[in-house]
Amino acid sequence: xxxxxxxxRNEDQTRPPVLNALILVTLVTIVxxxxxxxxxxxxxxxxxxxxxxxxxxxxVLKGSCHTRLAQHGALETHVALHDRRLDIxxxxxxxxxxxxxxxxxxxxxxTRTWDIELHQxxxxxxxxxxxxxxxxxxxxxxxxxxxxxxxxxxRLGSWYDFDQPCQ
Length: 167
What we know:
alpha+beta, transmembrane, membrane, transmembrane helix
């Protein structure tokens, strides 16, 4: 039997400095990414609104739109156009709302946005009115954002796109 000679000179050599720098940069990047994801998902959750989509094929001008707000309840939203003003009606289901807010803004071009404070008129029933006095085309495209802050501080909302025919 023949003895196999093992060359141990290469085992004691250290890594090249560039490789050490790349390992350090990778570890720092992983730590920063974990911190950011933790802050994003856990740390600032109370400051953000969770936006949930309305039911498919809903048109708030032709009827009520229903939006399920995850396990917190639901919204039923209706918009009526009367003499250049929008009447907004929101009903909450299975949730006690502390505040119901709305924001109306143009979809296709820059137009100013209007904040709408919806007032409670009955239990789970909120209404608000906003004037809409201008049209630049045959119709104006709008996006209505409705946000509900419940008694526990959860911020939940939905959006509704619609077109206002100009006269």
